[in-house]
């Protein structure tokens, strides 16, 4: 993870980070928030209350067999608490040099087997500084979100959930290069306020059928509207999903299902961005079998998912994993999988302005990137191995190594025609990546805990044309080669806790359009330290003091590939009061 500015992040796993990390699928309670227009996640449109989050599952490696296309390098699955776990009232207020926020939630028992809750939250994040001039970036972010959740049981076998959210987020922008169709052609330092809003509704029914059998039906509708100065998009998504799980014989546990998704996209057209309105349909079916070759010792999991989309037709994503447990506290595993990233709408039919160049008659000729009707799937063949060791009841180790083989990776290929110079989205790169990850969790005492992690990563891409070399070099070096994190937690008293989090990140290189030029920006190796103190004053009343980026007053973390100017993130000191009653 790397912060780009107040409301934008690069979140990725095992490479290909960016504002649009297009090889990472993200779900909230089973609802995909992956954008079909540009591929990736608009993180500034998500502001779920952290107090309502039960857990965040991070799946390293391909997840296409269960979750489908675009779960290439990993999956983030955010799961919120059931309503019965959030009864009562909660008020939270926070403030500091970079943040002011407030939230409220009320939950109650509505019937013998029915619970519900409703919430509202608002945050106001301050501006940061430009990398080169140190001027304000005018990148304030003000998300406002509200929502509800109801959970109930009709009997001991049938449970249901209905939940929804609505949001309205304002975000300031600093566009260092905004090209215009008429003189002066270039607007420098343009400031604008963008507005994003949307809503979603999710329903789920889960039926226990006895003997380990269960049936789950999920449906959701999602509306999202994103308004920037240079484009506007509206999306309506309808998703239906059915899943059945049942044991088969003594050694098999089958999971299979089918789904349908329809996406309606409506876009504005202007000098900067043009996309055609369209509707896309996706059909899928999957099956997975967990086979106990030797009960409690040797487990084999095989599965595959079939998908059909309107762009590239039929896609299969198989996977296999074997786990061997020679002893209770030891586990070895191997896996192989195939995954795909399907084309985004902009890659097949879009027109995006990159810049302009002067002509002899003093005109400015626009330089566009055009969508390509032949743009196909990006493909990954992944191979992984790992070892897990529960050394003691208080000490746990995990080691993972991987090798990824990529084909048909996105590149921008220049082309000169009678109408001038432009570029096309193409699948002109192949490559591979490899690395390993080590983690250790140690509960030294009842009051003292540590978590240590180290990762090594290397990505190599090769382009079929010399003109794409700079793009490839930038992407291969945008992920740190070495990363180390250390978290510590100490509770000297039952109502007092100290937390410290240190992160070391190796140097990276990002390609960027800056105030003075377009070039590669080298970000030196950095050490970041965050800390907080949590004090429970009395039952239900909690005070937290926190500091982020303790070692630097300003720090450049990542440079966006989409024109957001290089931004140095300000250090942050703030307090938070949470009252539950």
CA radius of gyration? 25 Å
Instruction: Identify the CATH class.
Output: Mainly Beta
Number of E-state strands: 38
Q: How many separate structural domains? A: 1
Which runs of at least 5 residues are low in confidence (pLDDT < 50)? none
Distinct helical segment count: 3
Helix content: under 10%
Provide a descriptive summary of the structure in words.
The protein has 581 residues and is an all-beta fold. The protein has one domain (2-580): Beta Barrel (Maltoporin, Chain A). The chain is 3% helix and 67% strand. The chain has three helices and 38 strands. The chain has a 22-stranded antiparallel barrel. A hairpin with a 2-residue loop joins strand 22 (313-327) and strand 23 (330-341). The longest helix is centred in the C-terminal third of the chain and has 8 residues, at 469-476. It is globular and about 80 Å long. The mean pLDDT is 90.
């Amino acid at each position: 993870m790397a912060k780009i500015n107040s409301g934008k992040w690069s979140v990725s796993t095992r490479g290909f980070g960016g504002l649009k990390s297009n090889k990472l699928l993200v779900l909230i309670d089973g609802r995909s928030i992956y954008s079909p227009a540009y591929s990736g996640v608009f993180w500034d449109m998500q502001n779920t209350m952290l107090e309502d989050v039960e857990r965040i599952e991070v799946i390293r490696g391909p997840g296409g067999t269960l979750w489908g296309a675009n779960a290439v390098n990993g999956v983030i699955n955010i799961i919120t608490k059931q309503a019965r776990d959030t009864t009562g009232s909660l008020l939270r207020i926070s403030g500091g040099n970079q943040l002011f926020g407030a939230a409220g939630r009320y939950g109650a028992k509505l019937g013998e087997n029915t619970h519900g809750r409703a919430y509202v939250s608002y945050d106001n994040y301050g501006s940061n500084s430009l990398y080169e001039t140190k001027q304000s970036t005018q990148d304030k972010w003000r998300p406002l979100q509200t929502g509800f959740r109801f959970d109930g049981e009709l009997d001991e076998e049938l449970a249901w959930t209905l939940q929804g959210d609505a949001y309205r987020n304002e975000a300031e922008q600093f566009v260092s290069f905004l090209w215009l169709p008429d003189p002066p052609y270039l607007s420098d330092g343009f400031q604008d306020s963008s507005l994003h809003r949307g809503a979603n509704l999710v329903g789920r029914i889960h039926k226990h059928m006895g003997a380990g059998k269960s049936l789950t039906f999920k449906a959701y509708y999602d509306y999202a509207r994103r308004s920037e100065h240079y484009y506007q998009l509206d999306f309506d998504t309808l998703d239906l999903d059915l899943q059945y799980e049942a044991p088969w014989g003594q050694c098999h546990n089958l999971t299979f299902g089918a789904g349908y998704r329809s996406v309606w996209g409506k876009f504005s057209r202007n000098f900067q961005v043009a996309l055609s309105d369209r509707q896309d349909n996706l059909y899928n079916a999957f099956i997975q079998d967990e086979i106990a070759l030797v009960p409690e010792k040797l487990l084999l999991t095989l599965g595959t998912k079939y998908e059909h989309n309107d762009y590239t037709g039929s896609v299969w994503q198989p996977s296999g994993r074997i786990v061997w447990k020679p002893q209770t506290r030891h586990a070895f595993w191997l896996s192989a999988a195939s995954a795909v990233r399907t084309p985004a709408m902009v890659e097949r039919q879009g027109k995006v302005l990159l810049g302009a160049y002067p002509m002899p008659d003093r005109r400015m000729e626009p330089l566009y990137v055009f969508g390509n009707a032949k743009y196909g799937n990006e493909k990954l063949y992944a191979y992984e191995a790992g070892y897990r060791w529960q050394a003691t009841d208080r000490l746990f180790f995990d080691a993972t190594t991987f090798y990824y083989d990529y084909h048909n990776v996105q590149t921008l290929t220049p082309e000169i025609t009678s109408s001038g110079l432009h570029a096309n989205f193409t699948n002109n790169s192949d490559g591979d990546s490899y690395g390993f990850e080590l983690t250790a969790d140690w509960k030294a005492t009842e009051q003292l805990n540590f978590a240590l992690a180290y990762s090594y990563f290397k990505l190599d891409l090769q382009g079929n044309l010399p003109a794409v070399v700079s793009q490839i070099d930038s992407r291969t070096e945008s992920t740190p080669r070495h990363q180390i994190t250390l978290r510590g937690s100490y509770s000297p008293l039952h109502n007092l806790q100290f937390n410290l989090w240190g992160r070391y990140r190796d140097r990276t290189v990002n390609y960027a359009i800056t105030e003075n030029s377009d070039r590669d920006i080298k970000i030196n190796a950095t050490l970041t330290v965050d800390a907080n103190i949590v004090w429970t004053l009395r039952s239900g009343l909690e005070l937290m003091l926190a500091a982020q980026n303790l070692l630097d007053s300003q720090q450049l973390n990542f440079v966006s590939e989409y024109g957001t100017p290089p931004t140095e993130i300000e250090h942050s000191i703030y307090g938070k009061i949470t009252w539950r009653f």
